[in-house]
Write a sequence for this structure.
């Protein structure tokens, strides 16, 4: 029995190492000198350098992209969280005759490939002169974040007993007051999970940003992808750019793992 | 006082209304707009006055061999990907579940690939798989195997895309299955052990049937996710070599934003939505049937 557990441990740890290797390799290459990054056989021992990071900021307005990514993600998250949480609360507390249809529509919007909305968005934004603005991009991300927030928060609110609010209302609180002071604080883990996911979706999104932005509103993923269209790819700076984009999310994962697991498995497990 | 009473009375719609308005503006209206586009010959040359062509775009879509081939490639991509992700994810979940205390650390580490920005996933793998400078071919040479340019080989490119997708999304399946495993009751297992059932028997007769609802939801979510895939393929191969990795979202992208056949692309997009709606409806029905029995 003991031996079997050891075998399992070795197998699982090996698999984990394989899964982590690409992430390690991106970061590892990013601190080599641009020349070392190209060397085969690979260099394993070297003095780490930030040369590639400097190169990224020299060759592209990366700080500007960073700012765009952050503001777009934050705007879309705050907007979808406000509207979505309100709707989810209403769905959980009040009777809707079309409850089943509503849940199907939300489910459906989560299945639709984003590219389906991209063509109308492209033309509509062009007509409205909205193309290449962070606001338009944030607005379009809401299309996917809002249904997700409603879905997730609906599940959370259903689990918070209504009796708590009723007790507060007997003590003289209004229905709104009871919601704000009793239920919302209890739903904090849900709000955390929902905001993390909304932020992550917006931060990682590529296709809409590619089509709907130009030099003004361009986000990090589009900036990073541009490195590849060049004839000779400078792997060092590319890996440095990649590290800067993914590192915030990876650190996040470690910090808030509990909420993350909850959010990811929500819907699959009650 | 009066205001708060009014607010309370209409609370249901004050809270739900904004979401309806936003969804109408952001989902319904664009879809209706796309339908209108799909009835017109909207292309680069007819920008200002696209002629009405009725259902011709739909007919063209159904006759478009490239579209069928893109759908076929999407099917292969999704199918092989799901098989790999479910088998590896299940094995990892069973393993981690057994390991007890190390499980927390392992879960944190295993979840990481899923967090990486898909564009960065594409860039990282492009470097790893690079014919001249990549560590993949270096390892092959060391092992005495002929190096191969997987990304520009029409034979290997699609499979490579599937493997990259598997790398990123197996952690998701692992996580869902692990949570599922931990929520299972103990009694059937104790009974089976008393009856002297072997590990394979326990797995196939107890674990899998009990996990079935979880498996179905994970399957639907991954199917939808894989049908959306765009980013890493765009970065890794751009749909090439030729159209070897041009899955349906890349095909749509090319039609709409490189050939500017917006009317046609809208028709394809709507057909795709219809297809996905049907699959979702079927999946939801199966799910409900599952949870009611």
């Amino acid at each position: 029995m003991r031996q079997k557990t050891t075998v399992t441990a070795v197998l699982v740890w090996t698999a984990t190492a394989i899964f982590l290797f690409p992430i390690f390799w991106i970061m590892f290459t990013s601190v080599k000198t641009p020349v070392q990054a190209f060397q085969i056989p690979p260099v394993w021992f070297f003095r780490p350098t930030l040369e590639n990071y400097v190169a990224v900021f020299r060759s592209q307005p990366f700080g500007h992209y960073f700012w765009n990514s952050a503001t777009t993600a934050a705007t879309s998250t705050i907007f979808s969280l406000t509207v979505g949480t309100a709707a989810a609360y209403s769905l959980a507390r009040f009777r809707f005759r079309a409850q089943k249809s509503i849940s199907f529509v939300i489910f459906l919007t989560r299945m639709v490939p984003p590219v389906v909305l991209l063509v109308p968005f492209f033309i509509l934004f062009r007509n409205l002169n909205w193309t290449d603005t962070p606001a338009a991009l944030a607005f379009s991300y809401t299309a996917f974040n809002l249904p997700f927030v409603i879905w997730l928060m609906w599940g959370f609110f259903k689990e918070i007993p209504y009796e708590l609010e009723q007790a507060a209302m007997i003590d003289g609180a209004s229905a709104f007051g009871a919601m704000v002071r009793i239920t919302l604080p209890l739903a904090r883990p849900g709000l955390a999970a929902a905001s993390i996911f909304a932020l992550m979706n917006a931060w990682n999104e590529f296709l809409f940003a590619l089509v709907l932005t130009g030099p003004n509103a361009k986000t990090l993923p589009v900036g990073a992808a541009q490195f590849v269209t060049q004839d000779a790819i400078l792997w060092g700076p590319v890996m440095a750019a990649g590290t800067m984009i993914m590192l915030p999310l990876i650190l996040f994962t470690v910090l808030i793992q509990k909420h993350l697991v909850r959010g990811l498995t929500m819907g699959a497990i009650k | 006082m009066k205001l708060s009473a009014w607010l309370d009375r209409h609370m249901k719609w004050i809270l739900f209304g904004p979401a309806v308005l936003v969804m109408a503006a952001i989902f319904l209206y664009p879809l209706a707009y796309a339908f209108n586009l799909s009835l017109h010959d909207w292309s680069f040359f007819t920008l200002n006055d696209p002629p009405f062509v009725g259902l011709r775009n739909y007919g063209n879509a159904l006759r478009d061999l490239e579209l069928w081939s893109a759908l076929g490639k999407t099917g292969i991509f999704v199918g092989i990907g799901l098989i790999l992700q479910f088998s590896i994810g299940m094995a990892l979940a069973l393993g981690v579940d057994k390991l007890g205390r190390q499980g927390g650390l392992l879960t944190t580490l295993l979840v990481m690939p899923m967090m990486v920005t898909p564009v960065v996933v594409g860039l990282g793998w492009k470097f790893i798989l690079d014919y001249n400078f990549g560590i993949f071919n270096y390892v092959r040479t060391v092992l005495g195997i002929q190096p191969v340019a997987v990304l520009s080989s029409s034979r290997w490119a699609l499979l490579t895309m599937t493997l990259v997708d598997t790398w990123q999304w197996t952690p998701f399946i692992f996580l869902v299955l692990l949570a599922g495993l931990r929520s299972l009751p103990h009694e059937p297992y104790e009974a089976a052990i008393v009856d002297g059932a072997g590990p394979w028997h326990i797995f196939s007769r107890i674990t899998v049937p009990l996990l079935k609802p979880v498996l179905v939801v994970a399957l639907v979510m991954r199917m939808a996710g894989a049908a959306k895939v765009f980013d890493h393929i765009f970065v890794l191969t751009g749909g090439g070599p030729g159209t070897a990795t041009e899955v349906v979202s890349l095909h749509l992208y090319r039609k709409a934003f490189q050939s500017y056949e917006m009317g046609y692309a809208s028709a394809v997009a709507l057909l795709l939505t219809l297809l996905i709606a049907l699959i979702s409806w079927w999946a939801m029905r199966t799910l409900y049937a599952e949870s009611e029995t």
The first helix of chain B runs from residue 2 to 9. Chain B has 13 helices and no strands. Chain B has one domain: 58-292. Chain B has a mean pLDDT of 87.
